[in-house]
Amino acid sequence: MAASHATVPATPTANHEGQQHPVRIYLVVWGWLFVLSLFSYLVDYFHFQGLLRWTLILLFMGLKAGLIVAVFMHMAWERLALAYAILLPPLAVLVFAALMLIESDYTLWMRRTFLGTGD
Predict the structure, then answer these.
(1) How many CB atoms lie within 10 A of CB 39?
(2) Are 47 and 83 contained in the same domain?
(3) Region 86-100 average pLDDT
(4) Coil/strand/helix, residue 9
(5) Residue 75 has what pLDDT?
(6) C-alpha closest to that of 36 among 81, 66, 7
(7) Rounded to an integer, what distance in angstroms lies between the CA atom of residue 60 and that of residue 34?
C-alpha cells in the first residue's frame, strides 16, 4: 500500500510571526546607551580625577554592558538557570580579583612595616 503524504502549508501562528520584541525596546536601549556614553565622555571633559573618575567610568561601562547583555543578547528573556550560568562566573572573577587586591595591600603593608621594603 502506498502511503500518501499530504503536505500542509505552513501558516503563521501567534508564536512565530515576525519579530519577537517590539522595536521600541531596542530604540529605548539605544537611547540609554547613547546617554551613558555621553556621561562617560563628560567624565573626561570635566576633568574628574582620581578614584571618582575611575569609579564613574567603570559604573557607566558596567551599565552599558548590562543593557547590551540583557536586551541585545536576550538574557532578560532567558531561563534563570542560563542567566546564572553566564553571569555568575564573571561575578566570581570580580570578587576574587577584589580579594586579591585587598590581600596585596595587606602584603605591602606587612613588608613596609616589618621589613622596611616594598617600594
Answers:
(1) 15
(2) no
(3) 92
(4) coil
(5) 86
(6) 66
(7) 11
Residue 83's identity, in one-letter code, is: A
How does residue 73 score in pLDDT terms, banded at 50, 70 and 90? confident
Which domain covers residue 99, as residue numbers? 79-119
pTM for this model (two decimals): 0.63
Q: Which of 5-19, 43-57, 68-82 has the lowest mean pLDDT?
A: 5-19
Tally the domains of the chain: 2
Residue 35: HSE in the Cβ half-sphere, 13 Å Cα cutoff: 8
Count CA within 13 A, CB hemisphere, residue 93: 4
Residue found under cell 531561563:
79
Amino acid at 41: Y
